[in-house]
Automatic annotation (TrEMBL):
Organism per entry: Nelumbo nucifera (Sacred lotus)
Function description: Plays a role in vesicular protein sorting.
Family annotation (PANTHER family): VACUOLAR PROTEIN SORTING-ASSOCIATED PROTEIN 35, VACUOLAR SORTING PROTEIN 35
The protein's name: Vacuolar protein sorting-associated protein 35
Compartment(s) of residence: Cytoplasm; Endosome membrane; Golgi apparatus, trans-Golgi network membrane; Prevacuolar compartment membrane
A Pfam entry, by short name: Vps35
Top-level division of the source organism's lineage: Eukaryota
GO biological process: intracellular protein transport; retrograde transport, endosome to Golgi
GO annotations of cellular component type: cytosol; endosome membrane; Golgi apparatus; late endosome; retromer complex; retromer, cargo-selective complex
Length: 790
């Protein structure tokens, strides 16, 4: 059925074009022979083809354009005739004898155009005559195209300022009146189109109407091009008349399109000065009109106008643009109770963009916009609509992009309230955006109040919202989010120790609510931030009583102890142990022996009770030995206790090679270069001999289990320890012992049971070269090495 209709329409169009071309041929013949009557007769018959009602607007337009081309030729002919003395008045009378009204009016418009050009009568009288007579065609499609033709032929003949048709009797007001009248009639015809034909074809008619909208809109474009339409005339006459027509037509399509046209074709300066009038029409439009898009476009244009030059900004203040726009949006949202959330938020995004461009210094205006958005969303659950969520993100991102400073955004009381309406996933995305802004602009947050406000904004990353489990999130995404929080903690800083301690307490309060999965990411940066403060306060001391005591290292260490203890809920014993050792080292630098000893005690307790994995034990014991070796604060008793513990645990590691390495590492606990009281050569040699025994045991176990000796790497490592302490002047290390060890390694390597190991061989060869180098170097060291034969 549809294809049949299309074929029929194509056939009717072809018939119309054929009839038009046929009569156009005879019209041209009459023109060539200078026969006025025949030329008008055939032109009228040609134009009769436009009387059809069978074509859709799209097809009718094709037919109209062919007729238009022929009429242009007819107009040129009449122009030439008037120059040769033909009476244009007689011609104007003659065309009115055409039998049918539609051809008659097309010919009248054509000859009327020539009549105006001849200046034999005032342009305003002819224009008024034509625009009135066109009322004779009330068929919507035929009437629209006829009036479009009238607009086309008259647009360059309007009595405008500077125009050749401007005279005493012809004023700009007459030109404006003509265009407004033609616009009004065209709009009525366009609106009436929706009532033509059966109801079932309503959608098709709306589509056809949409295709014809530019015919109506061109009138507004012509109005905007009239030089004489200054601000006063626009304000007093043009805008009120156009808006009256827009409001009264009560048609959704027409109202939306015409409001859009007004905003697009007239200058921004005019919009600014007539803002109240323009905005006053918005609540009067049909409730189904997409007014949010219209207002958004208006605000976008005004924003760009404000951004174009600083000189125009006082005009915005003068007309109180923000207040008017804000009130208008409020009225529109109030009037359109069914407006979806996305529509309202889009309006507030545009208003906020306008505010940030025009009044960047008025944070109260920015907060007012956010507050209005909160009011609109109040009573609603969190947004699930993707488009609405996207607009909220745009709303929240705008101040960040404008000010490049989160500190400014933190002053907006309604900012976190808007964020609360985001779903959990988007809330996190927005929180990451905020952190990225801080990192990108290198913004330091320097007061505990601002930190409190900031953590309220990013709470979606800090803790689970509404009990939503963190397991739902992709592991990589979760790590990236928590790493961004960790980076943020380092951007919270104040030179004043008191304020810095408050910041640390605020951060601690928030991150401890994060649950076991987040703590391993967020506790370490907090600990290191606090240790930075400790080193800043290094040397200060005093007993801590109450909460109001000034920031002291002791007070901070208490906080640190409690914070690291929280990791037990994870559990993360390896991480906690590392942090305890970091704190112990800081306490050592602050000369706080009891505090340092307590941190070491906690580290050992973790090692004993929590760390069961053999690899983790190896790492942990080496960390403990390394940290303990650097400590210089302990008295003899405390140090002996801790070193005894370290050596004891070293010898109890699961694998013999691990035992060996840990035990020889303990030798450094008894010989510290820069501490005279810490050079116990006897205990060093005991550690090294014990390590040798363990290495021998490892070799024997390898022999039993694999039928061959293991690699000699452990012996070479112990040899290097012997060389180290030998050079440091340990009186218990003799060259003979080194010689024996060298011989032992050679024997092991050359034995039948030896396992080939290129890396161990290279290591041993390098060690021998070192001994040879020291011998050749001479001096005191050379003499010491002289007796060792390699």
């Amino acid at each position: 059925m549809i294809s049949d209709g299309i074929e029929d329409e194509e056939k009717w169009l072809a018939e119309g074009i054929a009839g038009l071309q046929h009569n156009a041929f005879y019209m041209h013949r009459a023109l060539d022979s200078n026969n006025h009557r025949d030329s008008l007769k055939y032109s009228a018959q040609m134009l009769s083809e436009l009387r059809t009602s069978r074509l859709s607007p799209h097809k009718y337009y094709e037919l109209y354009m062919r007729a238009f081309d022929e009429l242009r030729k007819l107009e040129m002919f009449f122009n030439e005739e008037t120059k040769r003395g033909c009476s244009i008045i007689d011609l104007y009378e003659l065309v009115q004898h055409a039998g049918n009204i539609l051809p008659r009016l097309y010919l009248l418009c054509t000859v009327g155009s020539v009549y105006i050009k001849s200046k034999e009568a005032p342009a305003k009288d002819i224009l008024k005559d034509l625009v009135e007579m066109c009322k004779g065609i009330q068929h919507p499609v035929r009437g629209l195209f006829l009036r479009s033709y009238l607009s086309q032929v008259s647009r360059d003949k309007l009595p405008d300022i500077g125009s050749e048709y401007e005279g005493d009797a012809d004023t700009v007001m007459d030109a404006v009146e003509f265009v407004l009248q033609n616009f009004t009639e065209m709009n009525k015809l366009w609106v009436r189109m929706q009532h033509q034909g059966p109801v079932r074809e309503k959608e098709k008619r709306e589509k056809e109407r949409s295709e014809l909208r530019d015919l109506v809109g061109k009138n507004l474009h012509v109005l905007s091009q009239i030089e004489g339409v200054d601000l006063d005339m626009y304000k007093d006459t043009v805008l009120p008349r156009v808006l009256e027509q827009v409001v009264n037509c009560k048609d959704e399509l027409a109202q939306y399109y015409l409001m859009d046209c007004i905003i697009q074709v007239f200058p921004d300066e005019y919009h600014l000065q007539t803002l109240e009038t323009l905005l006053g029409a918005c609540p009067q439009l049909q409730s189904t009109v997409d007014i949010k898009t219209v207002l958004s476009q208006l605000m976008d244009r005004l924003s760009n106008y404000a951004a174009s030059s600083a000189e125009v900004l006082p005009e915005f203040l003068q007309v109180e643009a923000f207040t008017k726009l804000s009130n208008a949006i409020g009225k529109v949202i109030e009037a359109q109770v069914d407006m979806p959330a996305v529509g309202a938020i889009t309006l507030y995004v545009s208003l906020l963009t306008f505010t940030l461009r025009v009044h960047p210094d008025r944070l109260d205006y920015v907060d007012q916009v956010l507050g209005a958005c909160v009011k609109k969303l109040s009573g609603k659950a969190r947004l699930e609509d993707g488009k609405a969520t996207k607009q909220i993100v745009a709303l929240l991102s705008a101040p960040l992009e404008k000010y490049n400073d989160i500190v400014t955004a933190l002053e907006l009381s309604n900012y976190p309230r808007v964020m609360d309406y985001l779903d959990n996933a988007t809330n996190k995305v927005m929180a990451v955006v905020i952190i990225q802004s801080i990192m990108k602009n290198n913004t330091y947050i320097s007061t505990s109040d601002k930190v409190e406000a900031l953590f309220e904004l990013i709470k979606g990353l800090i803790k689970d919202l509404d009990g939503s489990p963190v397991d739902e999130l992709d592991e990589e995404d979760f790590k990236e989010e928590q790493n961004s929080v960790a980076r943020l903690i380092h951007m919270l800083y104040n030179d004043d120790p008191e304020e810095m301690l408050k910041i640390i307490c605020t951060v601690r309060k928030h991150i401890l609510t994060g649950g076991p999965k987040r703590l391993p990411f967020t506790v370490p940066p907090l600990i290191f931030s606090a240790l930075k403060l400790v080193r800043q306060l290094q040397g200060q001391d005093g007993d801590v009583v109450g909460e109001d005591v000034p920031a002291t290292p002791k007070k901070i260490f208490q906080l640190l102890h409690q914070t690291i203890e929280a990791l037990s809920s994870v559990p993360a014993p390896e991480l906690a142990l590392r942090l305890y050792l970091q704190c112990a080292e800081a306490a050592n630098d602050c000369d706080l022996e009891p505090v340092a000893y307590e941190f070491f005690t906690q580290a050992f307790i973790l090692y004993e009770e929590e760390i069961a994995d053999s690899k983790a034990q190896v790492t942990a014991i080496h960390l403990i030995i390394g940290t303990l070796q650097r400590m210089n604060i302990f008295g003899v008793e405390n140090r002996d206790t801790l070193t005894h513990k370290a050596t004891g645990y070293s010898a109890k590691l699961l694998k013999k090679p691990d035992q060996c390495r840990a035990v020889y590492a303990c030798s450094h606990l008894f010989w510290v270069d820069d501490q005279d009281g810490m050079k116990d050569g006897e205990r060093v040699i005991l550690c090294l001999k014990r390590a040798l025994r363990i290495a021998n045991a490892a070799q024997q176990m390898a022999n039993v289990t694999r039928g061959s000796n293991g690699p000699v790497t452990l012996f070479v490592e112990i040899l290097n320890k012997y060389l180290y302490f030998f050079e440091k002047g340990n009186p218990q290390i003799y060259s003979a012992a080194i010689q024996d060890l060298v011989e032992l390694i050679k024997t092991e390597m050359q034995g039948d049971m030896a396992t080939p190991d290129p890396s161990a061989n290279a290591f041993f060869a390098s060690s021998l070269r070192y001994i040879q180098f020291q011998k050749q170097k001479g001096g005191i060291m050379g003499e010491k090495y002289e007796s060792i034969k390699v």
